[in-house]
Protein backbone atom coordinates (compact mmCIF):
# COMPACT_ATOMS: atom_id res chain seq x y z
CA UNK A 1 0.00 0.00 0.00
CA UNK A 2 2.87 2.39 0.66
CA UNK A 3 3.64 2.43 -3.07
CA UNK A 4 0.11 3.27 -4.18
CA UNK A 5 -0.66 6.98 -4.45
CA UNK A 6 -4.04 7.98 -3.08
CA UNK A 7 -5.27 9.32 -6.43
CA UNK A 8 -4.59 5.93 -8.07
CA UNK A 9 -6.18 3.73 -5.42
CA UNK A 10 -8.58 1.00 -6.54
CA UNK A 11 -11.27 -0.59 -4.38
CA UNK A 12 -8.86 -3.47 -3.64
CA UNK A 13 -6.21 -0.95 -2.56
CA UNK A 14 -8.84 0.64 -0.33
CA UNK A 15 -9.59 -2.75 1.22
CA UNK A 16 -5.91 -3.26 1.98
CA UNK A 17 -5.67 0.25 3.45
CA UNK A 18 -8.57 -0.48 5.80
CA UNK A 19 -7.12 -3.87 6.78
CA UNK A 20 -3.69 -2.44 7.56
CA UNK A 21 -5.26 0.03 9.98
CA UNK A 22 -7.63 -2.56 11.51
CA UNK A 23 -10.63 -0.36 10.72
CA UNK A 24 -13.86 -1.56 12.31
CA UNK A 25 -16.27 1.08 10.97
CA UNK A 26 -16.50 3.18 7.82
CA UNK A 27 -18.24 6.54 7.59
CA UNK A 28 -19.65 6.69 4.05
CA UNK A 29 -19.94 10.42 3.34
CA UNK A 30 -21.51 12.52 0.62
CA UNK A 31 -21.44 16.34 0.67
CA UNK A 32 -24.89 17.89 0.28
CA UNK A 33 -25.78 21.31 -1.18
CA UNK A 34 -24.67 23.09 1.98
CA UNK A 35 -21.43 21.11 2.30
CA UNK A 36 -22.76 19.08 5.23
CA UNK A 37 -21.66 15.44 5.51
CA UNK A 38 -24.56 13.06 4.82
CA UNK A 39 -24.49 9.29 4.46
CA UNK A 40 -24.25 6.16 6.62
CA UNK A 41 -21.87 4.51 9.06
CA UNK A 42 -21.23 0.88 8.14
CA UNK A 43 -19.45 -1.97 9.89
CA UNK A 44 -16.22 -2.81 8.09
CA UNK A 45 -17.59 -6.12 6.72
CA UNK A 46 -20.79 -4.50 5.44
CA UNK A 47 -18.78 -1.84 3.60
CA UNK A 48 -16.90 -4.58 1.73
CA UNK A 49 -20.08 -6.47 0.88
CA UNK A 50 -21.96 -3.44 -0.42
CA UNK A 51 -19.14 -1.72 -2.37
CA UNK A 52 -21.43 1.29 -2.26
CA UNK A 53 -24.91 1.85 -0.90
CA UNK A 54 -28.22 3.45 -1.70
CA UNK A 55 -29.79 6.54 -0.17
CA UNK A 56 -32.56 8.88 -1.41
CA UNK A 57 -31.33 11.29 -4.05
CA UNK A 58 -32.98 14.21 -2.24
CA UNK A 59 -30.35 13.83 0.51
CA UNK A 60 -27.91 15.88 -1.58
CA UNK A 61 -30.64 18.31 -2.66
CA UNK A 62 -31.76 19.67 0.71
CA UNK A 63 -31.34 23.13 2.13
CA UNK A 64 -29.77 24.10 5.44
CA UNK A 65 -33.15 23.70 7.21
CA UNK A 66 -33.66 20.18 5.83
CA UNK A 67 -36.86 21.23 4.10
CA UNK A 68 -37.82 20.39 0.51
CA UNK A 69 -40.12 22.28 -1.88
CA UNK A 70 -43.71 21.03 -1.95
CA UNK A 71 -44.02 21.50 -5.72
CA UNK A 72 -42.48 23.26 -8.71
CA UNK A 73 -39.49 22.85 -11.08
CA UNK A 74 -37.47 21.11 -8.35
CA UNK A 75 -39.45 17.94 -9.05
CA UNK A 76 -38.69 18.12 -12.77
CA UNK A 77 -35.16 17.17 -11.68
CA UNK A 78 -35.51 15.32 -8.36
CA UNK A 79 -37.95 12.47 -8.83
CA UNK A 80 -41.07 13.00 -6.65
CA UNK A 81 -41.19 9.26 -5.86
CA UNK A 82 -38.18 9.74 -3.54
CA UNK A 83 -36.09 7.21 -5.45
CA UNK A 84 -32.63 6.04 -4.50
CA UNK A 85 -29.24 6.87 -5.91
CA UNK A 86 -26.16 4.71 -5.51
CA UNK A 87 -23.11 5.96 -3.65
CA UNK A 88 -19.76 4.71 -4.88
CA UNK A 89 -16.63 5.27 -2.77
CA UNK A 90 -13.82 7.39 -4.16
CA UNK A 91 -10.89 5.42 -2.75
CA UNK A 92 -8.55 8.41 -3.05
CA UNK A 93 -10.50 10.24 -0.32
CA UNK A 94 -10.13 7.64 2.46
CA UNK A 95 -8.89 8.97 5.78
CA UNK A 96 -8.86 7.90 9.40
CA UNK A 97 -11.31 9.67 11.73
CA UNK A 98 -8.71 10.81 14.28
CA UNK A 99 -11.18 11.58 17.08
CA UNK A 100 -13.00 8.23 16.96
CA UNK A 101 -12.47 5.88 19.92
CA UNK A 102 -12.34 2.77 17.68
CA UNK A 103 -10.42 2.60 14.37
CA UNK A 104 -12.82 4.35 11.98
CA UNK A 105 -12.34 5.46 8.39
CA UNK A 106 -14.19 8.13 6.42
CA UNK A 107 -14.61 7.93 2.65
CA UNK A 108 -16.29 10.45 0.35
CA UNK A 109 -18.68 8.92 -2.18
CA UNK A 110 -19.91 10.01 -5.59
CA UNK A 111 -23.61 9.85 -6.46
CA UNK A 112 -24.89 7.80 -9.40
CA UNK A 113 -28.38 7.30 -10.80
CA UNK A 114 -29.89 3.95 -11.82
CA UNK A 115 -28.38 4.29 -15.32
CA UNK A 116 -24.90 4.59 -13.83
CA UNK A 117 -24.53 8.30 -14.56
CA UNK A 118 -23.34 10.90 -12.06
CA UNK A 119 -26.26 12.64 -10.36
CA UNK A 120 -25.99 16.11 -11.98
CA UNK A 121 -27.13 18.14 -8.97
CA UNK A 122 -24.71 16.57 -6.47
CA UNK A 123 -22.05 19.24 -5.70
CA UNK A 124 -19.12 16.90 -6.31
CA UNK A 125 -20.57 16.02 -9.73
CA UNK A 126 -20.75 19.70 -10.65
CA UNK A 127 -17.07 20.27 -9.88
CA UNK A 128 -16.11 17.13 -11.81
CA UNK A 129 -18.08 18.49 -14.78
CA UNK A 130 -16.17 21.79 -14.81
CA UNK A 131 -12.78 20.11 -14.36
CA UNK A 132 -13.56 17.89 -17.35
CA UNK A 133 -14.14 20.99 -19.49
CA UNK A 134 -10.61 22.12 -18.69
CA UNK A 135 -9.21 18.64 -19.29
CA UNK A 136 -10.76 18.70 -22.78
CA UNK A 137 -8.64 21.81 -23.46
CA UNK A 138 -5.49 20.09 -22.19
CA UNK A 139 -5.49 22.25 -19.06
CA UNK A 140 -5.34 21.42 -15.37
CA UNK A 141 -6.68 23.97 -12.87
CA UNK A 142 -4.61 24.53 -9.74
CA UNK A 143 -6.22 26.16 -6.72
CA UNK A 144 -5.29 27.14 -3.18
CA UNK A 145 -8.06 28.17 -0.77
CA UNK A 146 -7.72 30.34 2.32
CA UNK A 147 -10.39 29.75 4.97
CA UNK A 148 -11.37 32.33 7.57
CA UNK A 149 -13.48 31.24 10.54
CA UNK A 150 -14.37 32.32 14.06
CA UNK A 151 -13.86 30.62 17.36
CA UNK A 152 -16.73 31.61 19.64
CA UNK A 153 -17.87 30.80 23.16
CA UNK A 154 -20.44 28.00 23.42
CA UNK A 155 -23.88 29.34 22.60
CA UNK A 156 -26.96 27.15 22.94
CA UNK A 157 -29.52 29.96 22.58
CA UNK A 158 -29.96 31.29 19.02
CA UNK A 159 -31.45 34.50 20.45
CA UNK A 160 -28.18 35.33 22.23
CA UNK A 161 -25.39 37.10 20.34
CA UNK A 162 -22.12 35.25 19.76
CA UNK A 163 -19.07 36.23 21.78
CA UNK A 164 -15.34 35.50 21.52
CA UNK A 165 -14.17 32.49 23.57
CA UNK A 166 -11.99 32.54 26.67
CA UNK A 167 -8.33 31.83 25.92
CA UNK A 168 -5.50 30.50 28.13
CA UNK A 169 -5.25 33.85 29.91
CA UNK A 170 -8.82 33.53 31.14
CA UNK A 171 -9.90 36.57 29.13
CA UNK A 172 -11.78 36.99 25.86
CA UNK A 173 -10.49 39.19 23.04
CA UNK A 174 -12.00 42.65 22.92
CA UNK A 175 -9.97 44.27 20.12
CA UNK A 176 -8.64 43.62 16.63
CA UNK A 177 -5.59 41.33 16.66
CA UNK A 178 -4.55 40.98 13.00
CA UNK A 179 -1.52 38.68 12.61
CA UNK A 180 -0.96 38.61 16.38
CA UNK A 181 1.11 35.59 17.41
CA UNK A 182 0.17 35.98 21.07
CA UNK A 183 -3.54 36.04 20.19
CA UNK A 184 -3.17 32.71 18.36
CA UNK A 185 -1.18 31.32 21.29
CA UNK A 186 -4.21 31.93 23.50
CA UNK A 187 -5.66 28.84 21.81
CA UNK A 188 -2.49 26.74 21.54
CA UNK A 189 -4.06 23.54 22.96
CA UNK A 190 -6.83 23.69 20.37
CA UNK A 191 -4.52 24.35 17.42
CA UNK A 192 -2.01 21.72 18.50
CA UNK A 193 -4.77 19.12 18.43
CA UNK A 194 -6.12 20.52 15.16
CA UNK A 195 -2.74 20.22 13.43
CA UNK A 196 -2.32 16.73 14.87
CA UNK A 197 -5.69 15.65 13.45
CA UNK A 198 -4.94 17.28 10.08
CA UNK A 199 -1.61 15.45 9.93
CA UNK A 200 -3.29 12.11 10.67
CA UNK A 201 -5.83 12.82 7.93
CA UNK A 202 -3.24 13.95 5.40
CA UNK A 203 -4.76 17.41 5.01
CA UNK A 204 -2.28 19.78 3.38
CA UNK A 205 -2.82 22.77 5.64
CA UNK A 206 -0.18 25.46 5.51
CA UNK A 207 -0.21 28.76 7.36
CA UNK A 208 -2.25 29.65 10.45
CA UNK A 209 -2.82 33.33 11.17
CA UNK A 210 -5.05 35.45 13.38
CA UNK A 211 -7.39 37.52 11.23
CA UNK A 212 -8.82 40.95 12.03
CA UNK A 213 -11.91 39.92 14.01
CA UNK A 214 -11.96 38.98 17.69
CA UNK A 215 -11.46 35.21 17.68
CA UNK A 216 -11.18 35.13 13.88
CA UNK A 217 -8.58 32.77 12.41
CA UNK A 218 -7.39 31.80 8.94
CA UNK A 219 -5.94 28.55 7.63
CA UNK A 220 -4.30 28.37 4.20
CA UNK A 221 -3.96 25.24 2.07
CA UNK A 222 -1.17 24.24 -0.30
CA UNK A 223 -2.14 24.47 -3.97
CA UNK A 224 -3.49 21.33 -5.69
CA UNK A 225 -6.20 20.02 -8.01
CA UNK A 226 -9.67 21.53 -7.31
CA UNK A 227 -11.51 18.28 -6.55
CA UNK A 228 -8.91 17.05 -4.08
CA UNK A 229 -8.75 20.43 -2.37
CA UNK A 230 -12.53 20.73 -2.15
CA UNK A 231 -12.47 17.33 -0.42
CA UNK A 232 -9.84 18.64 2.00
CA UNK A 233 -11.88 21.76 2.81
CA UNK A 234 -14.91 19.52 3.39
CA UNK A 235 -12.90 17.37 5.82
CA UNK A 236 -11.26 20.40 7.42
CA UNK A 237 -14.50 22.15 8.31
CA UNK A 238 -15.75 18.99 9.95
CA UNK A 239 -12.48 18.60 11.86
CA UNK A 240 -12.34 22.19 13.14
CA UNK A 241 -15.88 21.95 14.50
CA UNK A 242 -15.03 18.72 16.30
CA UNK A 243 -11.79 20.05 17.80
CA UNK A 244 -13.49 23.25 18.97
CA UNK A 245 -16.15 21.24 20.78
CA UNK A 246 -13.43 19.22 22.49
CA UNK A 247 -12.10 22.53 23.85
CA UNK A 248 -15.47 23.81 25.02
CA UNK A 249 -16.08 26.32 22.24
CA UNK A 250 -17.61 26.48 18.77
CA UNK A 251 -15.98 27.02 15.39
CA UNK A 252 -18.29 28.76 12.95
CA UNK A 253 -18.06 29.23 9.20
CA UNK A 254 -20.92 31.73 9.06
CA UNK A 255 -20.03 34.57 6.70
CA UNK A 256 -20.93 37.24 9.28
CA UNK A 257 -21.38 35.74 12.76
CA UNK A 258 -20.74 38.81 14.92
CA UNK A 259 -22.05 42.33 14.37
CA UNK A 260 -19.30 44.91 14.18
CA UNK A 261 -16.64 42.35 13.29
CA UNK A 262 -15.35 41.49 9.79
CA UNK A 263 -16.95 38.65 7.87
CA UNK A 264 -15.22 35.42 6.90
CA UNK A 265 -14.18 34.58 3.36
CA UNK A 266 -12.82 31.63 1.41
CA UNK A 267 -10.35 33.29 -0.92
CA UNK A 268 -9.46 30.95 -3.79
CA UNK A 269 -6.18 31.38 -5.68
CA UNK A 270 -6.28 29.81 -9.12
CA UNK A 271 -4.01 29.22 -12.09
CA UNK A 272 -4.03 26.93 -15.13
CA UNK A 273 -1.32 24.50 -16.22
CA UNK A 274 -0.84 23.32 -19.78
CA UNK A 275 -0.61 19.55 -19.24
CA UNK A 276 1.57 19.07 -22.35
CA UNK A 277 4.22 21.63 -21.38
CA UNK A 278 3.72 21.90 -17.62
CA UNK A 279 3.68 25.70 -17.93
CA UNK A 280 1.34 28.19 -16.30
CA UNK A 281 -0.73 29.65 -19.16
CA UNK A 282 -1.30 32.90 -17.24
CA UNK A 283 2.26 33.96 -18.20
CA UNK A 284 3.91 34.42 -21.57
CA UNK A 285 7.40 33.09 -22.26
CA UNK A 286 8.84 36.55 -21.51
CA UNK A 287 7.12 36.60 -18.09
CA UNK A 288 4.39 39.08 -18.93
CA UNK A 289 0.69 38.33 -18.24
CA UNK A 290 -0.90 36.36 -21.06
CA UNK A 291 -4.15 36.89 -22.94
CA UNK A 292 -5.57 33.89 -21.07
CA UNK A 293 -4.82 35.70 -17.78
CA UNK A 294 -6.79 38.77 -18.85
CA UNK A 295 -9.63 36.77 -20.42
CA UNK A 296 -9.98 34.73 -17.22
CA UNK A 297 -10.32 37.97 -15.25
CA UNK A 298 -12.80 39.23 -17.84
CA UNK A 299 -14.91 36.12 -17.31
CA UNK A 300 -14.92 36.61 -13.55
CA UNK A 301 -15.96 40.24 -13.97
CA UNK A 302 -18.71 39.35 -16.43
CA UNK A 303 -20.23 36.38 -14.57
CA UNK A 304 -19.52 36.86 -10.86
CA UNK A 305 -22.62 39.01 -10.20
CA UNK A 306 -24.86 36.30 -11.69
CA UNK A 307 -22.96 33.57 -9.82
CA UNK A 308 -23.07 35.22 -6.40
CA UNK A 309 -25.91 33.05 -5.07
CA UNK A 310 -23.57 30.07 -5.43
CA UNK A 311 -20.88 31.54 -3.17
CA UNK A 312 -23.00 33.81 -0.97
CA UNK A 313 -25.67 31.17 -0.37
CA UNK A 314 -27.54 32.57 2.66
CA UNK A 315 -29.18 35.80 3.75
CA UNK A 316 -26.35 36.19 6.26
CA UNK A 317 -23.77 36.04 3.44
CA UNK A 318 -24.69 39.52 2.19
CA UNK A 319 -24.01 41.12 5.59
CA UNK A 320 -20.32 40.45 4.89
CA UNK A 321 -20.24 42.22 1.52
CA UNK A 322 -20.31 45.87 2.51
CA UNK A 323 -17.93 48.82 2.36
CA UNK A 324 -14.81 48.86 4.55
CA UNK A 325 -15.36 45.39 6.04
CA UNK A 326 -12.35 43.72 4.35
CA UNK A 327 -14.78 42.11 1.86
CA UNK A 328 -15.25 43.23 -1.75
CA UNK A 329 -18.32 45.07 -3.01
CA UNK A 330 -17.59 44.87 -6.74
CA UNK A 331 -15.70 43.00 -9.43
CA UNK A 332 -12.82 45.43 -9.87
CA UNK A 333 -9.45 43.75 -10.35
CA UNK A 334 -5.86 44.72 -9.61
CA UNK A 335 -2.32 43.61 -8.89
CA UNK A 336 -1.60 43.28 -5.14
CA UNK A 337 -4.75 45.22 -4.22
CA UNK A 338 -6.83 43.80 -1.35
CA UNK A 339 -9.73 46.19 -1.86
CA UNK A 340 -10.78 44.52 -5.14
CA UNK A 341 -12.84 41.40 -5.69
CA UNK A 342 -10.33 39.91 -8.14
CA UNK A 343 -6.68 40.22 -7.08
CA UNK A 344 -3.44 39.06 -8.64
CA UNK A 345 -0.85 38.71 -5.84
CA UNK A 346 2.84 39.47 -6.29
CA UNK A 347 4.51 36.34 -7.68
CA UNK A 348 7.00 34.99 -10.16
CA UNK A 349 5.70 34.48 -13.74
CA UNK A 350 5.64 30.72 -13.11
CA UNK A 351 3.37 31.19 -10.10
CA UNK A 352 1.13 33.92 -11.54
CA UNK A 353 -2.38 33.42 -10.24
CA UNK A 354 -5.74 35.08 -9.73
CA UNK A 355 -7.38 35.33 -6.31
CA UNK A 356 -11.17 35.37 -6.11
CA UNK A 357 -11.90 37.33 -2.91
CA UNK A 358 -15.68 37.39 -3.31
CA UNK A 359 -16.41 33.85 -2.05
CA UNK A 360 -17.75 33.50 1.49
CA UNK A 361 -16.47 30.75 3.78
CA UNK A 362 -20.10 29.62 4.15
CA UNK A 363 -20.07 28.45 0.52
CA UNK A 364 -20.02 24.77 -0.35
CA UNK A 365 -16.35 24.23 -1.38
CA UNK A 366 -17.28 22.07 -4.39
CA UNK A 367 -19.77 24.64 -5.67
CA UNK A 368 -17.35 27.51 -4.96
CA UNK A 369 -14.49 25.91 -6.91
CA UNK A 370 -16.84 25.01 -9.77
CA UNK A 371 -18.26 28.53 -9.90
CA UNK A 372 -14.98 30.43 -10.05
CA UNK A 373 -13.49 28.01 -12.60
CA UNK A 374 -16.66 28.22 -14.70
CA UNK A 375 -16.51 32.02 -14.83
CA UNK A 376 -12.86 31.95 -15.88
CA UNK A 377 -13.55 29.24 -18.46
CA UNK A 378 -16.31 31.32 -20.05
CA UNK A 379 -14.02 34.34 -20.11
CA UNK A 380 -11.35 32.44 -22.02
CA UNK A 381 -13.81 30.77 -24.40
CA UNK A 382 -15.50 34.08 -25.21
CA UNK A 383 -12.24 36.09 -25.04
CA UNK A 384 -13.78 38.61 -22.67
CA UNK A 385 -11.52 41.60 -22.00
CA UNK A 386 -11.46 42.90 -18.43
CA UNK A 387 -12.00 46.47 -17.34
CA UNK A 388 -8.94 48.61 -16.72
CA UNK A 389 -7.00 47.67 -13.62
CA UNK A 390 -8.17 49.30 -10.38
CA UNK A 391 -5.04 50.94 -8.95
CA UNK A 392 -6.73 52.75 -6.08
CA UNK A 393 -9.32 51.97 -3.41
CA UNK A 394 -12.05 49.79 -4.92
CA UNK A 395 -14.39 50.69 -2.07
CA UNK A 396 -14.71 54.12 -3.68
CA UNK A 397 -16.16 52.47 -6.80
CA UNK A 398 -19.87 51.59 -7.03
CA UNK A 399 -21.35 48.28 -5.91
CA UNK A 400 -21.54 45.76 -8.76
CA UNK A 401 -22.43 42.66 -6.75
CA UNK A 402 -26.00 41.83 -5.69
CA UNK A 403 -26.94 43.13 -2.24
CA UNK A 404 -29.32 40.34 -1.23
CA UNK A 405 -30.00 36.65 -1.77
CA UNK A 406 -33.25 37.39 -3.60
CA UNK A 407 -31.49 39.64 -6.12
CA UNK A 408 -28.68 37.12 -6.55
CA UNK A 409 -31.10 34.27 -7.27
CA UNK A 410 -32.85 36.32 -9.96
CA UNK A 411 -29.52 37.00 -11.64
CA UNK A 412 -28.52 33.32 -11.52
CA UNK A 413 -31.81 32.15 -12.98
CA UNK A 414 -31.35 34.50 -15.93
CA UNK A 415 -27.77 33.62 -16.89
CA UNK A 416 -27.95 30.76 -19.44
CA UNK A 417 -24.17 30.59 -19.91
CA UNK A 418 -23.72 29.46 -16.30
CA UNK A 419 -26.59 26.98 -16.69
CA UNK A 420 -24.76 25.43 -19.64
CA UNK A 421 -21.44 25.08 -17.82
CA UNK A 422 -22.69 24.01 -14.38
CA UNK A 423 -25.71 22.02 -15.57
CA UNK A 424 -29.34 23.10 -15.83
CA UNK A 425 -30.43 20.38 -13.38
CA UNK A 426 -28.06 21.69 -10.73
CA UNK A 427 -29.11 25.32 -11.22
CA UNK A 428 -32.79 24.33 -10.97
CA UNK A 429 -32.34 22.37 -7.75
CA UNK A 430 -30.04 24.96 -6.22
CA UNK A 431 -32.22 28.00 -6.92
CA UNK A 432 -35.40 26.24 -5.79
CA UNK A 433 -33.79 25.23 -2.48
CA UNK A 434 -32.36 28.70 -1.89
CA UNK A 435 -35.71 30.30 -2.65
CA UNK A 436 -37.29 28.05 -0.03
CA UNK A 437 -34.64 29.05 2.52
CA UNK A 438 -35.21 32.72 1.72
CA UNK A 439 -38.95 32.33 2.27
CA UNK A 440 -38.28 30.62 5.62
CA UNK A 441 -36.02 33.48 6.69
CA UNK A 442 -38.64 36.08 5.78
CA UNK A 443 -40.97 34.56 8.36
CA UNK A 444 -38.60 35.62 11.16
CA UNK A 445 -38.90 39.09 12.74
CA UNK A 446 -35.48 40.47 13.73
CA UNK A 447 -34.50 42.48 16.83
CA UNK A 448 -33.72 45.46 14.54
CA UNK A 449 -37.32 45.54 13.36
CA UNK A 450 -38.67 45.42 16.90
CA UNK A 451 -36.22 48.09 18.04
CA UNK A 452 -36.82 50.62 15.27
CA UNK A 453 -40.29 49.90 13.97
CA UNK A 454 -42.34 48.76 16.94
CA UNK A 455 -43.21 52.24 18.24
CA UNK A 456 -41.89 54.51 15.48
CA UNK A 457 -43.89 53.75 12.36
Explained architecture:
The protein is an alpha+beta fold. It has two domains: 152 residues, Ubiquitin-like (UB roll); 285 residues, Glutamine synthetase/guanido kinase, catalytic domain (Creatine Kinase, Chain A, domain 2), CATH 3.30.590.10. 35% of the residues lie in helices and 18% in strands. It contains 14 helices and 14 strands. The strands form two sheets. Strands 7, 8, 9, 10, 11, 12, 13 and 14 form an eight-stranded mixed sheet that branches. Strands 1, 2, 3, 4, 5 and 6 form a six-stranded mixed sheet that branches. A hairpin with a 5-residue loop joins strand 1 and strand 2. The chain is globular, with a radius of gyration of 22 Å. The N and C termini lie far apart (70 Å). The mean pLDDT is 94.
Quaternary organisation of the protein chains: single chain
- What value does the average pLDDT take? 94
Name the CATH homologous superfamily of the largest domain: Glutamine synthetase/guanido kinase, catalytic domain
Strand content: 15-25%
Residue share in helix: 25-40%
**Coarse morphology:** globular
* Structural classification: alpha+beta
Separate helix tally: 14
Q: Tell me about the largest β-sheet.
A: 8 strands, mixed
EC number: 6.3.1.2
Family: Belongs to the glutamine synthetase family.
InterPro entries: Gln_synt_N_sf, Gln_synth/guanido_kin_cat_dom, Gln_synth_cat_dom, Gln_synth_gly_rich_site
Protein name: Glutamine synthetase
Amino acid sequence: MADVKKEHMTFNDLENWLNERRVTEVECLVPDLTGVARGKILPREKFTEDRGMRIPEAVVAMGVTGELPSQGPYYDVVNPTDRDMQLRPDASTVRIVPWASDPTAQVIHDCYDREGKLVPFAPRSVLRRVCELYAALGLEPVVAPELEFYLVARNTDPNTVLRPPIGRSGRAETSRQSYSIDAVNEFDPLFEELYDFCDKMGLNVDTLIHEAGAGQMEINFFHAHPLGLADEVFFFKRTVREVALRHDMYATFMAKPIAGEPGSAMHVHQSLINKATGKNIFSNDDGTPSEAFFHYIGGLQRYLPAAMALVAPYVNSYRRLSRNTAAPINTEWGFDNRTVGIRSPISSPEARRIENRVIGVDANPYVAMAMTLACGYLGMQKKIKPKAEMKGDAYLAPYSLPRSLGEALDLLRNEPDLHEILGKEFITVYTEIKELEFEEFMKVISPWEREHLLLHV
